[in-house]
From TrEMBL:
GO biological process: calcium ion-regulated exocytosis of neurotransmitter; vesicle fusion
C2 domain boundaries: 19-154
A single GO cellular-component term on record: exocytic vesicle
GO MF annotation, one: phosphatidylserine binding
InterPro entries from the UniProt entry: C2_dom
This protein's name: Synaptotagmin-4
Similarity comment: Belongs to the synaptotagmin family.
Amino acid sequence: MSSQETLGRRRVSVCAPRALGQLFILLQYQTAAHRIKVMVRKAENLAKLTRMPGAPDHYVAINLRHGGKVIATKETKGAAGHNAVWNAPFLFDLPSGDITKLTLMLEFIVMQGRLYTKSSVLGRVLIGYEGLEPGQVHWKEMCARGQVETARWHTLQPETLVE
């Protein structure tokens, strides 16, 4: 069954989750410096929020959260298209303590356009001690592998599912 079927002249939408796209993220825990290197590589199949013609610009805001509070924020430059490429590296200094015991979370917010409004949020990815399983797995893998970079694709989640 397709996402839309025509019945007579009326179109009926079937309630299927809308694919928002995927984000390719590389993480590395730099043990000696006690920081995380984050590389926002690229995205694929990003959804379009508006009916404006042309390929929209996308950018990614990255928040490091500790105990639910944002302690650091970084942002990529804009990249055009539905398969945006950033290759943008960022370093996040961590609070003191064992990384496996800290309540840390990396939040990636994919935005469309340059205005930070609720309507311009395309989707989010959470990587850390809580969140969806792929984000927890990537976090644990990063912590366990030390200086080795770990890269994974993450599916964007709607804002309502990750808050």
